[in-house]
Batch of 2 targets.
Target 1
Amino acid sequence: MPLAEWINEQRKPDETLIVGINGAQGTGKSTLADFLALHLHTDPGIRVATFSIDDLYLTKEERKVLSSRVHPLLATRGVPGTHDIQLGIDVMNSLQNLKAGESYRIPVFDKAKDDRAPAENWVEIDGPIDVIIMEGWCVGSFPDSELLLHDPINELEEKADRRGIWRQYVNAQLENEYQKLFDFLDLLVFMQVPDFDTVFDWRLEQETKLADISNDETSEIMGPAEIARFIQLFQRITELNLKIMPSLADCVIKLNKEHNIDELIYQRQVFDE
């Protein structure tokens, strides 16, 4: 609640405030975004739109084409290069300019099917929008140093990306196209996980919950071994975020291994009109 109130205090009159939430997998970004929206909605006249960068994933077919053109690892959703950034930019522009009486459908990605949901299942929201919240594990992230890309940091990079083509492509996408989307952000909240090892436990918990609510026998929900490999795709950027985000984000939420908040640190002064 204090965070929601702090965000509300950052709003400028007649402008849409755009907030990014960054955190490793399983940290609770979606839960935080939903709660912030719920609390902000209690203030009369405030309209909030939330979406995840995950909902911008390329379709399964688009990733299949990308994997054959650039690198096989790009068939797996998650890293920079596997999102439709132009779609994200369109979402931001549309929500910012949405007027009273107008509505807009925010894209939805079906993780159980590993594909974008049909347009009729997208989330419809009415304008105007006062606050936009975009959450995602790489939201607001920065690229790694070119020199550090040469040496693999885990088994996946060593065996599946020996020539470094995949990680160089991911880094280039994060350095260029993704910054165009992140430039929309007015505020960045960083959910700081204790360490990368904790990500596996939290990601397994997240996937278990997804399995519990999915009744589809054809779903592509992952087991422990698949998760262990899957999170290696995110390790390089996640570990870089753990190093640099605490000093770059406007607000840092320090989490402990029990998933509780140890500290909430504000690093930006309240907007003074």
Target 2
Amino acid sequence: MILDDWKLILITMAAGALLSAIFTWIEIPILKKKQFGQYIRDEGPKSHQAKSGTPTMGGLALYGAVTVAALATPLYTKVRESDIWVMVAAGLLFGLIGFIDDYIKVAKKHNLGLTVKQKFALQIVFALAFASYVMFLGEGQSVVWIPIINRTVDIGILYIPWAAFVLVAMANAVNLSDGLDGLCAGITFIEAAFFAIAAHSIGKIPSMLFLAALAGGCLGFLVWNHHPAKIFMGDTGSMALGAALTAGVIMMRTELLIPIAGFIYVAEVLSVIIQVVYFKKTGGKRFFRMAPIHHHFELGGMSEVQVVLMFWGFALACCLLTWFML
């Protein structure tokens, strides 16, 4: 029996949430036993020093749950399996970069993992491979849909570097949002749930199911990651989430909606860029109290929970605005 799309969204999301909560519950004592604890950078907010030693690399359980929930969908649907596998693989490969980075940090007991060049080199290779699939083996299109004016532009072979750029940029943007308890998981739940609904509205069923699994995985992880967090996702999780979310959206051919619905990620990146440029131009002065911008509000007197709730609300507002635009 083939279930209707809304039931599929709910079932897949529920499966992702349940598996994520269970897998994370199993992983926490394992990480504690192996002493895989988070190292808090000295230049960060002083209040965060108390979090030092909290188990990290929770992204293994989180994205493991997403993978199982997503790959189970072809068992009860007629969805194109290869598309699901490729979206899952995008998250796995970027998550692997994050895992290597996290492992080096844990093993050496400091906050420096892979170099920037090493990270970007791996990200670009994986992103180009994904973009090539989308263009040549997926729907075989090289078009970019422009929202608001509702037109498509065929950019030919340039679609590959374009899609690769979007994937790399967003993976790193989501990574920057992972700085407070529950912040990244909560925002990504909202974004993934929104795009799953959007995918349903335009008939992109593989993306719909994959993004529903991703949203569920984030929701289940929040059981253990909300303040005060019992586990952090680490770069293993944030890199996987960023790549997975973006891969699902690219497969929908709606990548230009990301800066609108996901403006919270854009704001995080812009705050870092503005801070660095202003610091260099003014000889050491800071534009924000601290970047990324969530720390600016935290150092301004807001509690960690207040900042997280404010950012969740802003992410939801951006998604609702995007829906009305559609």
